[in-house]
Structure formats: C-alpha cells, structure tokens
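Section 5.1 Outputs to date
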Amino acid sequence: QVQLVESGGGLVQAGGSLRLSCAASGSIFSFIIKTMGWYRQGPGNQRELVAFVTSDGSTKYADSVKGRFTISGDNAKRTVYLQMNSLKPEDTAVYYCKIVTVFNDYWGQGTQVTVSS
C-alpha cells in the first residue's frame, strides 16, 4: 500500500514563503517513478497543476507561479518539495502531492495553504 504524506502548509501573509514536503511510503520503488508534482485546488476552482519534476530532473511550472515557486525532487528518497516565495492571496488553496509511476498515479491527502492580504 502506497501513502503520500504532505506537510508544510499553513497561514502566511502575502509576500511570505512556505515550503511544502511530500514523502511517499510503501511499495513504490524509486526506479519506476516518472514524475513527482504538486497540484492545488482553490475555493470554487478545479484542481490545477502547479509544478512537476521528471525522473531526469526536468521541471514544468504553471505560468502563475513561474519565478516564485521552485520544485525539487529526490527519487531515491521518494520525496518532493515545493518552495513557495512571494506568496499571493490567490495562491490560497489545498495543495496536493502527486507521484506518477509506470503503473499507477498516487495522490496525497492535501495540505492547506492560506495567504492573507
């Protein structure tokens, strides 16, 4: 059984920073991981991609977070991070970790990020 556990969410003022972490446990071997990423779902919105990193280190970001967020991953540790700087109120959302493997996709339970103006 695979479990993804996120941490690092919270309440921060606009302009502040947070660092999210996601660690996978269970039967998920590093060599079958294709991508590790973060999605978010704000109030009344659909879940959207924030960023992901591939097994060879390539990254992709949503336009809304480019230059402010940085994703990094460690396949061997089955861990992915999201450094969020210059946070804006519109970044308020539940942030979900997602790991895509050769066989399955796995989601975390989500962590709340709230940015006050």
